[in-house]
Amino acid sequence: HHCFSKSEDGFLYCEKLKVQEIMEAVEKRPFYLYSKDQITRNFEAYMNALEGLDYIIGYAIKANNNLKILEHLRGLGCGAVLVSGNELKLALHAGFDPTKCVFNGNGKLLEDLVLAAEKGVFVNVDSEFDLENIVTAARIAGKRVPVLLRINPDVDPQVHPYVATGNKNSKFGIRNEKLQWFLDAAKSHPNELKLVGAHCHLGSTITKVDIFRDAALLMVNYIDEIRAQGFEISYLNIGGGLGIDYHHTGAVLPTPMDLINTVRELVLSRGLNLIIEPGRSLIANTCCLVNRITGVKTNGTKNFIVIDGSMAELIRPSLYGAYQHIELVSPPAPDTEVSTFDVVGPVCESADFLGKDRELPTPSKGAGLVVHDAGAYCMSMASTYNLKMRPPEYWVEDGSIVKIRHEETFEDHLRFYEGL
Ligand code: LLP
């Protein structure tokens, strides 16, 4: 079952708690609400799918870096995928095993690479200059760095261009025609680099597993080529990118099991250890952004529901035109009219919308409204635009509501000027 569901009485629940009642208890406007058990279930779906393989599940912490969530996933056996020095520090702080961590990125900084080298995390090589920096970091740290080559398999992920990464003109990774240069470089730096595998990441919100299969096929061919030159490499990292059912239409989307099954035989045939880097599919559906309705208005042909949440807390609709499902948390009064609304925030720009043209019962002031699937790339991309402070986070744990991150406050903001 899924953690957020509407019961027959028309109320939205998070596990066994009424969201309406959680709102009364929390009194914050807005807030992120998670289900801890849903996080566990999502992780277990990957573990079950991977049974029989050697694997590392590296959670892409850019999707959501809440420390309590990180500690929970780490406790379940998860690794971490990092794209900055601070993410690496946070993962270490959360107790992740460095040998289950991967450091990614097209612009990794030398100082961050030095930390990665010291701790022994896997580093994905992204470019010629990146390789040079990794070599320098290895010398500074006095460590041999386990590296994977991030190769662009040039498979079209069929997603929004802003979240496609594995195509030939992408800023990420290396083109296959340059592979030999990187192999020669690895050979000439045996004390600094230990080439252990190959990596690719095609993009995000992928809803067809064939895409992963096509990429994995190309990748094992590269691995064969690399092995033929005497490298004993054992890791295939196929990145993250599995999409989720943002539309809540009940459409059957590929599961972690479907994803792993399309690459399982290939991985086994080469005796590889499979690394995956899921972000969204682990965390997105575990959370709602819970908002209160400030008012309803009409302009021209448009009806608007104005809520306290905004693009500052949830930017995906504004940035990618992304659809995230919206619902009221309690049933409408009898005979309430259903109309078409744009759901918007209070931020001073027209890009500030959470949903367009949504059929909803005309709500009353103060009613609760949730934006679903807010676990991934919402809080982690939140800003303080318009001096909105980042909201608190809560999860439902053992049937109770527990705060897992404090709200940011106006006083926090003033602290940046202290002593100047
Ligand atoms: N590995 C690498 C190298 C990545 O670049 C990403 C995401 C992931 C793993 C995790 O991908 P996921 O499983 O979450 O799809 N802000 C956008 C998504 C950007 C994804 C960037 N890379 C959004 O809100 O849709």
TrEMBL record:
Gene Ontology process terms (BP): lysine biosynthetic process via diaminopimelate
Pathway: Amino-acid biosynthesis; L-lysine biosynthesis via DAP pathway; L-lysine from DL-2,6-diaminopimelate: step 1/1
One of the Pfam families matching this protein, by short name: Orn_DAP_Arg_deC
Active site, per annotation: 348
Cofactor(s) the protein requires to work: pyridoxal 5'-phosphate
Orn/DAP/Arg decarboxylase 2 N-terminal domain boundaries: 37-284
N6-(pyridoxal phosphate)lysine modification, residue list: 62
EC category name: lyase
PROSITE patterns assigned to the protein according to its UniProt record, in alphabetical order: ODR_DC_2_1, ODR_DC_2_2
Keyword Amino-acid biosynthesis: yes
SUPFAM superfamilies, per the entry: Alanine racemase C-terminal domain-like, PLP-binding barrel
Catalysis: reaction(s): meso-2,6-diaminopimelate + H(+) = L-lysine + CO2
Swiss-Prot/TrEMBL keywords: Amino-acid biosynthesis, Decarboxylase, Lyase, Lysine biosynthesis, Pyridoxal phosphate
Domain annotation Orn/DAP/Arg decarboxylase 2 C-terminal: ranges: 32-375
Molecular function as annotated in GO: diaminopimelate decarboxylase activity
E.C. no: 4.1.1.20
Function field: Specifically catalyzes the decarboxylation of meso-diaminopimelate (meso-DAP) to L-lysine.
Similarity annotation: Belongs to the Orn/Lys/Arg decarboxylase class-II family. LysA subfamily.
Cross-referenced HAMAP family: LysA (MF_02120)
Name of protein: diaminopimelate decarboxylase
Species whose genome carries this gene: Amborella trichopoda
